[in-house]
């Protein structure tokens, strides 16, 4: 069973629908018993970094998630803001992140020649695979995903980057370290490409 973590941030309904399309058993919950019996976790997210961390604290989820992810090594997929929360912090706020991956989220800053690029980065874009992973299995070279974000991960460990995306700069759009996965885009809004990525997470990772 895949548990989609309910911390009152994000678009969990669309994620659940996509998981059910691929035949994966999934449940939205913040209940300790439900999360503890899951064999995979998804941390969705839309909104502000500090709000996301505050909601995790209010629901007393951080100690439980530390136990499940870092000690029991349950696979987890962070989506958009959910991925950013996996890092150490963000220029968007002052809260500390979960700290499971060694990166900080930074805001897009463009030089004068790139001022035509809007922030947030919004719409469809490709990913360029830098390292093989079961998460990216059977994805075609023209795979496109839907992005909506003003901040992106700036890893201090380049080896955790699975794929990058170009938007004025090349930024890390897919990350992995051991059982911890993150995508900056929204697979639940990315049609067949997102469906395949979620299938890979559910069946392979």
Automatic annotation (TrEMBL):
GO terms for molecular function: lyase activity. Pfam families: GATase (PF00117). It is found in: Cytoplasm. Pathway: Amino-acid biosynthesis; L-histidine biosynthesis; L-histidine from 5-phospho-alpha-D-ribose 1-diphosphate: step 5/9. Its EC number is 4.3.2.10, 3.5.1.2. It catalyses: L-glutamine + H2O = L-glutamate + NH4(+); 5-[(5-phospho-1-deoxy-D-ribulos-1-ylimino)methylamino]-1-(5-phospho-beta-D-ribosyl)imidazole-4-carboxamide + L-glutamine = D-erythro-1-(imidazol-4-yl)glycerol 3-phosphate + 5-amino-1-(5-phospho-beta-D-ribosyl)imidazole-4-carboxamide + L-glutamate + H(+). Keywords: Amino-acid biosynthesis, Cytoplasm, Glutamine amidotransferase, Histidine biosynthesis, Hydrolase, Lyase. The active site is at 80 (nucleophile), 186, 188. It comes from the Bacteria. Its main location: cytoplasm. InterPro entries: Class_I_gatase-like, GATASE, Imidazole-glycPsynth_HisH. PROSITE patterns: GATASE_TYPE_1. Residues 4-201 form the Glutamine amidotransferase domain. IGPS catalyzes the conversion of PRFAR and glutamine to IGP, AICAR and glutamate. The HisH subunit catalyzes the hydrolysis of glutamine to glutamate and ammonia as part of the synthesis of IGP and AICAR. The resulting ammonia molecule is channeled to the active site of HisF. Heterodimer of HisH and HisF. This is Imidazole glycerol phosphate synthase subunit HisH. It comes from Anaeroselena agilis.
């Amino acid at each position: 069973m895949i548990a989609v973590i309910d911390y009152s941030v994000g678009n969990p309904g669309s994620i659940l629908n996509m998981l059910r399309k691929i035949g994966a058993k999934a449940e939205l919950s913040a209940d300790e018993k439900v999360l503890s019996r899951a064999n995979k976790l998804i941390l969705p997210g839309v909104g502000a970094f500090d709000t996301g961390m505050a909601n995790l604290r209010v629901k007393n989820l951080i100690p439980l998630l530390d136990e499940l992810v870092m000690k029991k090594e349950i696979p987890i997929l962070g989506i958009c803001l959910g991925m950013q929360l996996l890092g150490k912090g963000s220029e968007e706020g002052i809260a500390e992140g979960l700290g499971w991956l060694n990166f900080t989220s930074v805001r897009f800053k463009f030089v004068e020649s790139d001022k035509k690029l809007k922030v947030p980065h919004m719409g469809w874009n490709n990913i360029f695979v830098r390292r093989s992973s079961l998460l990216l299995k059977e994805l075609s070279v023209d795979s496109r995903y839907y992005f909506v974000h003003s901040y992106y991960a700036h890893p201090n460990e380049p080896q955790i980057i699975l794929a990058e995306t170009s938007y004025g700069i090349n930024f890390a759009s897919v990350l992995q370290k051991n059982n911890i996965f993150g995508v900056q885009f929204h697979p639940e809004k990315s049609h067949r490409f997102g469906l395949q990525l979620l299938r890979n997470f559910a069946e392979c990772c």
